[in-house]
Every structure is written in C-alpha cells, then in structure tokens.
Design a protein that fits this description.
single chain; about 375 residues; alpha+beta; Helix Hairpins; Heat Shock Protein 90; five-stranded mixed sheet; two-stranded antiparallel ribbon; 9 helices; elongated
C-alpha cells in the first residue's frame, strides 16, 4: 500500500519518465553502436584485403598471382600486380551503407514511437491527476452542499418542535427551511443534469424563450439568496430566443449565481478596492451584431487568465483557497457551457487576475432567435 501510494500522481509520472528516459538512451546508444560496428567491420575487411594484396604481390610470381586471384573474387590483376576489385569494393560499400541506413531508419522509428509513448503517458497522467483533483474538490463540495442545508433544516425543525414560536418566527424558520430545500434541489438537479450531459441523453426541447424575463427572475432569486451582494441589471429591449428553455435558464442562473458567490466571498474576505466589502454584480442583456449577449460582471475573487478555459470543465474549481471561500460543486459552469454548445452559442470568461473580478459572456447566435414555421 505504501509503495502504491508513493507511485501515485507525480511519483508515478517521475518514475515512468525515468524508465522511458533510460529506454530512450539505450535505444539511441544501440543505433549509434550498430552504425559504428558496421563501419568498423568494413574498415577491418578493407585492412584484411590490403594485407592479402601486399602478401600476394610480395610472395608470388605473376603466374601464381593469376591463379590465386581466381579464388579471391575481391581481388584482381592489373599489369601483373594484385589490386582491389572495384566491383567487389563497391558491393561491400553498398552493403555497409544499406546496413547503416537500416539501423538508422529502424532506430529512428523506434525512438519516435518511444517519444510518442512518453508524450501520451505524460498527458494521460496529467489528465488523471487533474481528474483526481476535481473529484476531490467535488467530494469536498458535496459534503458542504449537503451538510449546510441539512443542518439549517434540522435546526429550524428543532426550534419549531421545542418552542412555541410566534407566527413571525414560524414564517422565518419555514422560509429558511424552504431555502435550504431549494438549495438541495438545485444541487441534485445539477448533478443529474451533468450526468445526462455526460451520457449524451440530453435532447433540447426548443421553444420561444423571453430572455429578459428569465434574466429578471434570476436576478430577483439571486437577490433573495445573496442579500448582501448588490446586483445591478440592465436589459436592453426584449430579446427572444427560440431555444431549449431549461438550457437557457441554466446558463442565466448559473452565471449570476457564480458571480454572486464570488462577490460574496470577496466581501467576506474584507479586501479593499474592487474586491472589498461592497463587491457587486452587474448583469447586462442586449443584442449585439445580430446576436443576443448576456454579460455578467462581478467584483469578486477573479482568477488567473490561464485558468479561463478550464473553468468550464466538469468538477473543476480554481484552487483550494477559492474552494474554501465559495460554495458550489464545480458543475454550474460546466452545465452552462454545455447548454451554450447545444444551441451553437459561445461562453467565455475573462479576468485580469486574482482579486480583479471576472466577466462571463454568453452569446446566442442569430439562428437561435428564429422560430421555425
């Protein structure tokens, strides 16, 4: 068990890279060594032939040389002297060159395959490491998302059971319980929606959607859930989509909810400036270049620019510190991105860095605004 743990994650990656590195070095050495061996063998053959030629010229008369050359095809007579046969030397040189080229091509092919194997292994292990991190974040957030509303419901129920509360307090406690139940329903719905999207079982049911109404309802709901976060909404015109209503609502609600969580966490942190106690959210809906654009800007925690593309991955959350500061399961932005892809739209995120807030922009294409006849 200890050994298996030591080979998990970075340990396994380093170990496999070392093994592949040794294999790569051995393969390179084998190619160089075989090419050198082929060349040295040719040189030795040439030296042996040279000695035979010298011996024949020194030890034999012309008649004996003629008979001796007949049994040695690599030699020939030239004016009674024993010399190398040009044809034989050319044949040996071709054989050596062919062998060296074969070693070169075989070695190069093996090294390329080995390099590709190393690249695939590194990428796979990195993806596995990121997946494990997202799963750990998800499990931690699941515990928080379930524990907090259940604790609120339990406390409210115990208060109602043990005390003879006045009507105003009863309404307050039941309202708190309903909010906790709504939070649980939202979380469970996100998990189920994520599973359907992952399995490809989500079929869009397109209809006319009044986006301005969806945005206003989402802002009102967010104002109830996050009373300490100032939310400003600007709706230009009355844009209408012909799209999957559930998907559109998921995009709007998740973007606004995500911005409110970030702004609330920044306010809780008590940082000065843009991320101070008055961190706010600005929502804007408009038509731009024959597209419907929803732009949600917050003065919250922000993120590093290189994290932008990964924010929409399933279970991904920016760092452990942000995970501790904000609630959530890491599914909301994933579902929103999947819903936009389903409609042929785009969803992107921008931030100048941690502590600088963030802007999320959803764009629905023109064809999404055209209802079929």
């Amino acid at each position: 068990m200890t050994f298996a743990r030591s080979l998990d994650g970075k340990g396994l990656l380093v170990t496999m890279l070392i093994l592949f590195g040794v294999c790569f070095a051995q393969a390179t050495y084998w190619v160089v060594d075989q090419m050198g061996f082929a060349r040295s063998f040719y040189d030795e053959v040439e030296q042996v032939l040279e000695r035979e030629k010298v011996w024949a010229n020194q030890s034999m008369n012309p008649a004996e040389r003629a008979l001796w050359v007949k049994d040695h095809p690599h030699l020939a007579l030239d004016a009674g002297e024993v010399v190398f046969s040009p044809a034989a030397l050319a044949r040996i040189e071709r054989d050596v060159a062919s062998r060296i080229n074969r070693y070169r091509w075989e070695g190069a092919f093996f090294l390329v395959v080995l390099a590709l194997g190393i690249a695939v292994l590194v990428r796979t292990l990195r993806q596995h490491s990121r997946l494990l991190q997202r799963q750990r974040n998800f499990m931690a957030s699941v515990g928080h998302e379930l524990k907090s509303p259940l604790a609120s419901i339990k406390l409210s129920a115990e208060t109602l059971e043990l005390r003879d509360c006045p009507p105003e307090q009863v309404r307050s406690l039941t309202g708190r319980m309903l909010q906790a139940v709504t939070r649980l329903e939202t979380f469970i719905g996100n998990v189920m929606e994520s599973a359907r999207l992952e399995a490809g079982e989500r079929d869009p049911q397109r209809q006319e959607v009044r986006l301005a109404t969806v945005v206003r309802d989402a802002v009102d709901q967010a104002g109830t859930r996050y009373p300490d976060v100032p939310i400003e909404a600007q709706v230009h015109g009355a844009p209408t989509l012909f799209a999957d209503a559930i998907g559109v609502q998921a995009v709007v609600q998740n973007l606004i909810d995500n911005a409110c969580k970030s702004a609330q966490a920044a306010g809780t942190a008590g940082n000065a400036g843009a991320t101070g106690a008055n961190a706010s959210v600005h929502v804007e809906l408009l038509e731009e270049h024959r597209r419907i654009v929803l732009r949600v800007q917050d003065q919250g925690l922000g993120f590093a620019p290189e994290e932008a593309s990964r924010l929409f991955q399933r279970f991904y959350r920016v760092g452990d510190e942000l995970t501790r500061k904000t609630k959530g399961s890491g599914l909301g932005l994933y579902i929103a991105k999947a819903a936009m892809d389903m409609e042929g739209g785009t969803l992107d995120a921008q931030s100048a860095g941690p502590g600088s807030g963030a802007t999320f922009t959803a764009r629905w294409p023109k064809r999404a605004m055209e209802a079929s006849a």
